[in-house]
Amino acid sequence: MTMQFQDTLLYNDVVYDTDAELLEPFLDEKGIRSEHSGSFSANWRGYVAHFEIKDFEIHLTNHRNSDFFEKVIRELGTTKLIYLNRLVILYSNLIGHNGWIQSYNTYENYQVLEIRNGNLTDFKILDHTEFTDFKKSQFLKFIETDDYQKTKLKRMEQIDTENSILREQKGKGPGWHKYKFRENEFLEETEEYILSKTKRFY
Predict the structure, then answer these.
(1) 10 Å Cβ neighbour count for 190?
(2) What is the DSSP letter of 80?
(3) Closest by alpha carbon to 42, among 8, 6, 17?
(4) Given 19, 140, 175, 186, which is the most exposed site by the fewest CB atoms within 10 A?
């Protein structure tokens, strides 16, 4: 896959590149797409967004003089990302490169920001060892929660839906193959992507 242009986030007077795609959940919900979407291999989204955290709120800052971003703001009703509930990781000082996706690489320092309804509610500043330990702790705490059970149930429902579609398309002949939920595989996936699968600190 071609390396993608990244959004930026201004935080504590430092501009960070981020591949977190913070607008995408809202755009998906509203069915909004840039007219340039898919027209450039290095920017399949068709836009590059700039954000700023100021006074403990995260805002979209490049909404002026852009029909696309002005439409986003009209739909949102504010520049504040009031829909955003997630952990955002900011990376500093690359020390090990494994690809253009930031989470694949190793950095000297990490800042993990907890965003709730567009508000910065908590944060952690970690070195690489502390960041690794934090992810493990986050995973072990998460799998003991109701939130984990909800995500597991959602995955099982998705598999049931996919099986129903396949059954309708192929019937029960030799081409029919039923997907099964395997919790060990789901746990491995959850641990690998724990910071994108959890929306707050545990």
Answers:
(1) 19
(2) B
(3) 6
(4) 175
